[in-house]
């Protein structure tokens, strides 16, 4: 389990104070949840990114706060694309023995034979809802497509035994489909010939009128 240090900050920081924090490479944050009072703090942005890369979006983090260390997950965070900067983080303190429900990404692995034959890989769902104890939540759920031919598909019911967790989506929800290639409509040669004949006739009539 990865550790992340934090510093306390005033609950109602001024905009100027928040701006100074961000300019110093820190991210304003708040932690709340299991046996934890709503607490304002800040963390180092680079350290936060490192930890998330290590444990994953749904991973458990040992957050070091003034009262000690508490296990948290990232409930939400805000990102400023223009500044390429994380601007705020919500940490939720968790009970490691209590199940939670989160969204887990579906990762396709392998290469489908149907794709080599011109089939098109369609992925209706990129995430599924998973319920499990925090330690059992997978970072991603891998779905092997290496045996799929054109017309084949994989549904939620096919991956329910993947791990020690429950997928909340319906059995019939499709995760991946190999569709037949779309055929381009054939050009109507007769219509093209008729068009040429009409154009030639029109040109002939125009020439006759000029005479």
UniProtKB/TrEMBL annotation:
Residues 183-196 have a biased composition (Acidic residues). Residues 7-91 form the Large ribosomal subunit protein bL25 L25 domain. GO terms for biological process: translation. InterPro entries: Rbsml_bL25/Gln-tRNA_synth_N, Ribosomal_bL25/Gln-tRNA_synth, Ribosomal_bL25_b-dom, Ribosomal_bL25_C, Ribosomal_bL25_long, Ribosomal_L25_dom, Ribosomal_uL5_bac-type. Residues 179-211 are annotated as: Disordered. Gene3D superfamilies: Ribosomal protein L25, beta domain, Ribosomal Protein L25, Chain P. GO terms for molecular function: 5S rRNA binding; structural constituent of ribosome. Keywords: Ribonucleoprotein, Ribosomal protein, RNA-binding, rRNA-binding. GO terms for cellular component: cytosolic large ribosomal subunit. Pfam families: Ribosomal_L25p, Ribosomal_TL5_C. Residues 99-181 form the Large ribosomal subunit protein bL25 beta domain. Belongs to the bacterial ribosomal protein bL25 family. CTC subfamily. This is one of the proteins that binds to the 5S RNA in the ribosome where it forms part of the central protuberance. Part of the 50S ribosomal subunit; part of the 5S rRNA/L5/L18/L25 subcomplex. Contacts the 5S rRNA. Binds to the 5S rRNA independently of L5 and L18. This is Large ribosomal subunit protein bL25.
